[in-house]
Structures are given as C-alpha cells and as structure tokens.
C-alpha cells in the first residue's frame, strides 16, 4: 500500500502511476545505465512520420536526480544522438567527469572562504567601507 501512495503522489521517487501506465502501453525499453536508470522511447511511426521527434524518457532508479544521467545517455535523451549508447561502444572523453551527487545541505556541501559555515575565518574589513546615508 505504501508504494502505491508513493507512486501516485510523488514524482521524485522514481516514476508516477501515469508514467508507469504510459511506459507499459507505449514504451520500448532501450537500455539501462550504470546507475540503474532505465531509458525508453516510443516506437510510434505516426509521430515520426509527421515530423515530430520520437518521445524519449528515463525512469530513475530511486530519487529522481537529472545529474545521474551519464553523458552518452544525456546526448541520446536530448536528441543529439540517434543511436542509444546501449547499441554503441561509447567511451566518455577525458574531460568528462563521472557523476558526483549534489552535496547541498550535507557535510560535503561547498563552503567558500569566508562563509558563515566554513572552517576559515572571515577576513577583517580593511577600513575602506563607508556606510551609505541618504
């Protein structure tokens, strides 16, 4: 019962009930990435014959975070590549970094120098500041 309510009312925990039904009815599984995300497309020839691109979507494994889509799948899902990476021998380029989860709100969050929650002490004022008076 808990999974039913979660799937019915939340979109950030994988897929909703509508996505599940649409995927079952019209989706063609294309592949799965290393994070467990599953990719689908519509094999609808009427849609592509009318000049519209095919629909492509992803069902996330767990929490829906778009940064977990690897670079090859990102190119395919945004219609930059016609062939999905599951059918190609895709290797990322040297400058493409692996996924790192978003650290906002955690101990791994970025804290710049001078930040209130940072470890460093804020630099003292140099005396060149003058308060504005109307």
Structure description:
The longest helix is centred in the first third of the chain and has 10 residues, at 17-26. It contains four helices and three strands; from the N terminus they run ααββαβα. The chain has a three-stranded antiparallel sheet with strand order 1-2-3, sandwiched between helices. It has helices spanning 2-9, 17-26, 45-49, 71-77, and strands at residues 28-32, 38-41, 56-59. β1 and β2 (38-41) form a beta hairpin. It is α+β, with helices and mostly antiparallel strands and 134 residues long. The chain has one domain (1-124).
In short:
One of its GO terms (cellular component) is respiratory chain complex I. By secondary structure, the protein is α+β, with helices and mostly antiparallel strands.
Give the strand order, joined by hyphens, for the main sheet. Answer: 1-2-3
**Domain module tally:** 1
How many helices? 4
Cα-based radius of gyration, to the nearest Å: 23 Å
Poorly predicted tracts of residues = none
Question: Helical residue percent?
Answer: 10-25%
| Proportion of strand residues | 5-15%
Shape field: elongated
N-to-C series of helices and strands: HHEEHEH
**Number of extended strands:** 3
Mean pLDDT: 79
Biggest beta sheet summary: 3 strands, antiparallel
Question: By helix and strand content, what is the structural category?
Answer: alpha+beta
Protein name: NADH:ubiquinone oxidoreductase subunit NDUFA12
Pfam families: NDUFA12
